[in-house]
Design a protein that fits this description.
Layout lengths: L5 E8 L2 E9 L9 E5 L5 E5 L6 H4 L9 E4 L5 E5 L14 E3 L13 H7 L4 E6 L4 E5 L5 H18 L32 H20 L2 E9 L2 E8 L7 H16 L5 E4 L3 H23 L3 H12 L1
Parallel strand pairs: 11-12
Antiparallel strand pairs: 1-2, 3-4, 5-6, 6-9, 7-8, 8-9, 10-11
């Protein structure tokens, strides 16, 4: 007669029954407990729990990932580092940016993960670096609601084993770099000596700092002493982007290259419209404040400028 009770811890995974351990208070001469499980032939056979030293091998197939987050100068942008390559090693551009659901589906670099991320409430853009993902949210959204959904989608994409970015035949649907393009800082045979120096400085001295902040930079041209650049990722909608251009990039380029007289940020059509609407709103707001109009009228002006 046994004086104790036996307990068996069973772990179920992938439709299999695995015995992880046995805690027994029975006498030393008592036979180890057995468990009967059905087989494919609907028969019953004894199943003994394995020794404890074999248990880690049974759990070796369970894969976990650690996703680190880093803040950026833009309060509406957050950098996610899943410790996993994001862009293919043979991809020409150093980054990819998706600003609309359509851009995640069209050639040459569609991304199912970016498509799912842009479908989340509050996510306005997805930016891919070589080993990080920058998510930009709308100003009225809360990170406490957005972050858990982003974590879940990135974890699912990495664990699936499928490539995050696909490369298919075709050409980009626009020239703004959305969804894929050639690296603008890459050397070209028709580049002048000045343009080559500008690209070299942007690539070696400026791009690493901007990538650290969850963004990137695109060279759009050099005309009559003016360098035309486009900021991407977290830097695209950052309030301090003008300071970055003037105090950082412009000062460095003018210091090392005497032909450079200034730097101008290139805005896409939607960004130009937003800047003009904001300028109109600020002008009317100053007029109303000067005339002593109440807050309710100021709200009416904001509604009028948005129409």
């Amino acid at each position: 007669m046994r004086s104790g009770k036996n307990s068996l811890l069973i772990h179920r995974r992938f439709g299999q029954v695995r015995a992880l351990g046995t805690i027994s208070s029975s006498l030393s001469r008592t036979a180890p407990p057995t468990l009967c499980v059905p087989t494919s032939r609907d028969k019953r056979r004894p199943f003994s729990s394995p020794p404890l030293h074999l248990q880690p091998k049974l759990l070796a197939g369970i894969r976990t990932i650690f996703i680190q987050t880093e803040s950026t100068p833009n309060v509406d942008a957050l950098k996610f580092l899943p410790n996993h390559p994001i862009l293919p090693s043979d991809l020409s551009p150093k980054f990819l940016e998706y600003l609309s659901p359509r851009s995640t589906l069209v050639p040459p670099h569609p991304s199912p993960l970016a498509s799912r991320l842009l479908n989340l409430d509050g996510v306005s853009s997805v930016f891919y670096g070589s080993d990080f993902i920058t998510i930009t949210k709308s100003p009225d959204s809360n990170w406490a609601h957005v972050k858990p959904e982003v974590f879940s989608l990135i974890t699912e994409a990495v664990n699936s084993g499928e490539p995050i970015v696909r490369t298919i035949g075709g050409r980009p649907t626009n020239s703004s770099g959305e969804g894929g393009f050639q690296d603008s800082l890459a050397y070209r045979d028709d580049d002048t000596e000045t343009v080559s120096l500008i690209k070299e400085l942007l690539e070696t001295r400026i791009r690493p700092s901007i990538q650290e902040d969850g963004g990137d930079i695109e060279f759009r041209g050099f005309v009559d002493g003016t360098v035309f650049l486009k900021l991407r990722g977290a830097c695209r909608t950052c309030n301090s982007s003008t300071v970055t251009l003037k105090n950082g990039i412009e000062s460095m380029l003018m210091h090392y290259i005497e032909e450079v007289q200034g730097v101008v940020q290139v805005l896409d059509q939607e960004e130009e419209i937003a800047v003009k609407e904001f300028a109109r709103f600020e002008e009317k707001l100053k007029e109303l404040r000067g005339s002593g109009v109440g807050a309710s009228s100021i709200g009416q002006v904001k509604a009028d400028t948005s129409e």
